Amino acid sequence: MESRNDLIDDCRQAQKLLCDVTAIETEIAELEREVEVVEGLARQAIQSNAREVIDQSEWTERNGVYLNRHAEATKRLEELDGQKADRVGRSKTIEVFIRNLERTNNAVTEFDESLWSAVIDYVAVGTDGKLTFRFKNGAEITV
After folding, report:
1. DSSP of 49-100
2. Band of the pLDDT at 2, cuts 50, 70, 90?
3. Helical packing angle, 22-51 and 56-103, nearest 10°
4. Could you read off the pLDDT of 56-70 as tens digits, one per residue?
5. Minimal CA–CA distance to 14: which of 141, 138, 115, 140?
6. Phi/psi-derived region of residue 109, left when phi > 0, alpha when psi is between -120 and 50, beta in every other case
């Protein structure tokens, strides 16, 4: 706990760096506009096909292009939504860890479930009886 403030500062920096969703949100907004445009073009093509005599193979090909663009944009939107949710979740985990550190003024003397949950990813028991603690930051300690 001697370097608690330094650790909190490091966590804040890591949180800012690893959990930023600005670029993801920008790409999501662009893709949402793309989906709107493609939906409008597809709607126009359908209305045009209903009002005018159009070569159906040409129309099918053009409409297929719209459908593919829509599918690709929608798939990418789903990927980005997942990435954003992952980063937001990581940010919340780091925030819980920071709050626990801020509330603790001295060394931990008894088991604290919320601190454990914020710090430890999992514990593995080896065949030799040794315990490997995997921390949420990726570090491991075997005892």
Report:
1. HHHS---HHHHHHHHHHHHHHHHHHHHHHHHHHHHHHHHHHHHHHHHHHHHH
2. low
3. 160
4. 998 899 899 999 999
5. 138
6. alpha
| pLDDT tens figures, 36-93 | 999 999 999 899 888 888 889 988 998 999 999 999 999 999 999 999 999 999 899 8
Domain parsing of the chain, residue ranges: 4-107, 110-143
Rounded CA-CA distance 74/68 in Å is: 10
pTM score of the predicted model:
0.66
Burial track 13-25 (b if 16+ CB lie within 10 A, e otherwise): eebeeebebeebe
| Pairing verdict, β 131-135 and 120-125 | antiparallel
Q: How far apart are CA 45 and CA 54, in angstroms?
A: 10
